[in-house]
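COURSE: Structural Biology Practicum
ASSIGNMENT: Worksheet 4, Part C
STUDENT ID: 0417
INSTRUCTIONS: Below are two proteins. For each, the amino acid sequence is given first, followed by its structure token string. Answer the questions at the end about the second protein only.

PROTEIN I
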Amino acid sequence: MERNPIVLAKRLSRVGRAAKRLVIDEGHARSTLSDSPVDQDGNPVPWITYPAAAYLDSLDLTNRRMFEYGAGASTMYWQSRVAELVSVENDAAWRDLVLPKVDPKVVSIRLATDPESYTGSVAEGAPWDVVVIDGYLREEAARKAVPCLAPGAIVVLDNTDWFPEPAAVLRDAGLLQLDFAGPGPTKAYQWVTSVFLSRDTDLRFRAERPVVKGGEPVPYPPIDGWPAQS
């Protein structure tokens, strides 16, 4: 343990700044206090890990069609980022709560109260550019989603550390699995959200470089005689 008080103070300051990045800038404090997935400004966000959310937010999905198992805060978040969003929900009361908060020009929320119609709902309107699996019956939902994917599609599967079976289904279909482990809204623990990429995925990004919440990129210091970092 460092005993020099000046060095220790600097390190503790870094700890404080790092904690602020998560607790304040990502909105973890606000989401925990409200017990709902929101950012630092109270806007709804997907209930997935922050690293996965940051990666997905960097993608340009404005011309993509999305299908989502399970409606909620993520529906409100994605509606301004995609061309069309269809969610399927098994709970009528919850669907009625979400419907007034979404744009009917972009979003439709289907009600499916039996397992077969719930998992099979993805076939109606297929193919889809993006499929989000974060509801009930995830393994069967993954099986039903695979033949409904458009060329170059991506699939988002939450809690892959808890549900390895649907992840295996997607891998067996030839999709490439990217795992994003970390904390997320409202929770005091870490979990894993995975993004599955088609092998012919043509990803488009919203910016030339990733954007970090709560700060600007800090370049490496220059080295005498070396060209500038790019």
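PROTEIN II
(use this one for the questions)
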Amino acid sequence: MRDEFQIWVDAVCEQVRFWPDRKGIEKELRIHYEDHCRALERLNYEPKLAAERSLRAMGNAQEVGWALDRIHKPWLGWLWKFSEGTLLMLVLIVLWLTVSAGGVEQLIFRTRQQLEWTDPPAWADHVSLECGDVYLAPGEVRETGGNVEAELRFWVKVREPVPDFQPWELEVADNRGAVSFREWGDGRRQTSGYLEWERVPYWGWTRHQMTLRLILDYRPDWVEVSAPGGGRDWVLRAEWEEEP
């Protein structure tokens, strides 16, 4: 008789056009049907007879389905589903904005920085190349995790969108004779510390502000930056004032 109830409830749900509600309708009808069966069994009805009487009391499947379809209107159901999804999206957006508010502010600040060109200081070392002009000035020197981080600030003005100035080809030497550079094609590798580049492009990629961070285990007095070979030899020097 349980199978007959399933046939009946399937016929009911077929009349309900808003299909997301069908599972809930089936669950409610099954609960009502089983409660009716138990009530009759408590009155000493045989289980089979109780099931037959309970199913008959549930009514005509098609008529019950039509009545439920009028209650579970498709347009109202889909509108409710859409409202739930919209509300969830709004909650997620608010949470994301709340969590990443600091990151958004930093992104806006950095974007504004990228659109602002700051002229190099008058005392910056300078070299004029075929591709344009390169300026170098010392930046901050600070201790980080037992090491010393020395910043070199570059300003590059090029005449073409694709500059001939390639920062990864630079050699960096300090007053102790240590040389730091990235790996070259001929197998040479950096011998002291390491380099870290941060580039801020300007309009049309014709102006660049770059920061090179040289990490060492001592404080340098000065650093020379050069680009050897290829007929493009040049050297720029940055000096830091002695610590008091």
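ANSWER KEY EXCERPT:
Q1: The chain has a mean pLDDT of 72.
Q2: Strands lie at 125-128, 132-144, 147-158, 171-174, 179-180, 194-201, 207-216, 222-226, 235-239.
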